[in-house]
Design goal:
The protein has one domain: Amidase signature (AS) domain (Amidase signature (AS) enzymes, Alpha-Beta Complex), CATH 3.90.1300. Helices cover about 40% and strands about 15% of the residues. The chain is built from 15 helices and 17 strands. The strands form five sheets. The chain has an eight-stranded mixed beta sheet with strand order 8-10-9-16-17-13-11-12, with helices on both faces.
């Protein structure tokens, strides 16, 4: 029964939980066995809390079946940037290597209120900085499709857990693509929702709009259900939005089809690996066979690099400036660089970046009045070797900083758009490629419905987890 459960989708398991055919304990037992079998090679879930999970399962099962929430007892791992009460939460940093919080973050409260059972923390780079999941506390997370490759980041542990069958749903967060990049590298679905869609803590800055919490899954339907569970207002999250009706799961399966979509391989701002461009373009053109107009176009994103560098640096200075003074020797060099860049900013620079962001938002909003969706590669390459700290070069272009290679994702962050990475094909080495599907602000339903249409057309079979694979030679 254990192996049968591992291969199921989240939606089917939740239906079985509601009928009483299985219990949360059955699922926890299956996960514990699967983690023991495969996670030693992957290192997606370095911190486990099965005793806590079983206590929470017992408490949930004491409630009437109709009061167990949208997740009904389905186990969920939490990214190690978010606090879970009584569970070691390192944030991927030696500074917090032994930290055990007394209280959970809002996003965890929301998930548990809907019947999610937390059983593990997923690996992340230090403070989520850098799209390759490694840190000095737990080491590197490896890509299940090729154990010599990166799982990307910063929600790399979450994506690798989904791909290797140690999770059915996974929580993550996204500033410059941290839900979309690992989904692309690991052949799963990851979504950056609109700002405020998933309530979250704001301990340093109440109006934080770069980083958001969000869902990951192996199918669009599973992800839509998890987004429903994560959505809603919370008094401690002043930007949080009310839950949508109809549900995201309903909208994802409604059969909506776009009339006109745009595809861009590079948004005019980044190099892209030719093979990734070819795979994503071919996926986008599958819509043409369904009568959808597909055109190559994109709005003007020329200011995105400067704008994101400044606003990201400002956020790092606000969040981690104190740690630079007290624990500089324990911080990785990329984090030090980002904090120092932020502390050196003048008001003139931040004002310029804010003005640039307004212009980017307005241009994108206008563009999406002509097109229902914008499609791009979710990342500009497939998974690179795990030992490389970041992608230093692509298509003959060398990047100046450790975040420049993420422009195709962070440009969308700046435009306030919900965006999803959908598996859309594989390279000649069998590495997954993700298609980024972008819609207007607060229109997650449109993104999900478009993604479901493409998922059905492509029929890649990524709904089932894989056995972790050794490197494949070209």
């Amino acid at each position: 029964m254990s192996s049968e459960l591992i291969g199921e989708t989240a939606t089917r398991l939740i239906a079985r939980l509601r009928k009483g055919e299985i219990s949360p304990h059955d699922l926890l037992d299956a996960l514990e066995a699967r983690i023991a079998a495969v996670d030693g090679a992957v290192n997606a879930l370095p911190t486990l809390c099965f005793d806590r999970a079983r206590r929470h399962a017992d408490a949930l099962m004491s409630r009437p079946a109709g009061e167990r929430g949208l997740l009904a007892g389905l186990p969920v791992p939490i990214k190690d940037l978010s606090n879970v009460a009584g569970v070691r939460t390192t944030k991927g940093s030696p500074v917090f290597a032994d930290f055990v919080p007394e209280h959970s973050d809002i996003v965890v409260e929301m998930i548990e209120a809907e019947g999610g059972i937390v059983y593990a923390k997923s690996n992340t780079p230090e403070f989520g900085a850098g799209a390759n999941t490694f840190n000095e506390v737990f080491g590197a997370t490896r890509n299940p499709y090729d154990l010599s490759r990166s799982a990307a980041g910063s929600s790399g542990g979450a994506a690798a857990a989904l791909a290797s069958g140690t999770a059915w749903l996974a929580h993550g967060s996204d500033m410059g693509g941290s839900l979309r990049n690992p989904a692309s590298f690991c052949g799963v679905v990851g979504m950056r929702p609109s700002v405020g869609r998933c309530a979250s803590d704001a301990p340093m800055k109440l109006d934080q709009t770069l980083g958001v919490q969000g869902p990951m899954a192996r199918t669009v339907e599973d992800l839509a259900l998890f987004l429903d569970a994560m959505s809603g207002t919370h008094p401690g999250a002043p930007l949080s939005l009310p839950r949508e009706a109809p549900s995201f799961r309903e909208v994802a399966g409604c059969g909506w089809k776009p009339t006109r979509v745009a595809y861009s391989a590079d948004l005019g701002i980044t190099p892209v690996d030719p093979e990734v461009a070819a795979v994503t373009r071919a996926a986008a053109l599958r819509l043409a066979g369904e009568g959808v107009i597909v055109e190559e176009d994109h709005p003007d994103f020329s200011e995105a690099h400067e704008c994101f560098q400044i606003l990201r640096a400002q956020s790092f200075a606000i969040a981690f400036g104190g740690l630079l003074r007290t624990h500089r020797d324990l911080l990785k060099p990329e984090v030090v660089w980002n904090i120092e860049k932020g502390l050196a900013l003048t008001v003139a620079y931040t004002a310029r970046a804010e003005h640039q962001r307004v212009a980017l938002f307005q241009r994108m909003a206008s563009f999406l009045e002509t097109y229902d969706l914008l499609l791009t590669p979710a990342t500009i390459c497939a998974a690179f070797p795990v030992g490389e700290r970041y992608l230093a070069e692509c298509a003959g272009h060398r990047f100046e900083t450790y975040i420049d290679w993420l422009a195709i994702a962070y440009a969308i962050t700046l435009a306030f758009c919900p965006a999803l990475s959908l598996p859309c094909g594989f390279t000649r080495l069998g590495l997954p490629v993700g298609l980024q599907i972008v819609g207007p602000s607060r229109r997650e339903g449109r993104v999900l419905a478009g993604a479901k249409l493409l998922e059905d057309l492509l029929a890649l079979g990524t709904a089932r987890p894989i056995e972790p694979r050794q490197p494949r030679v070209a």
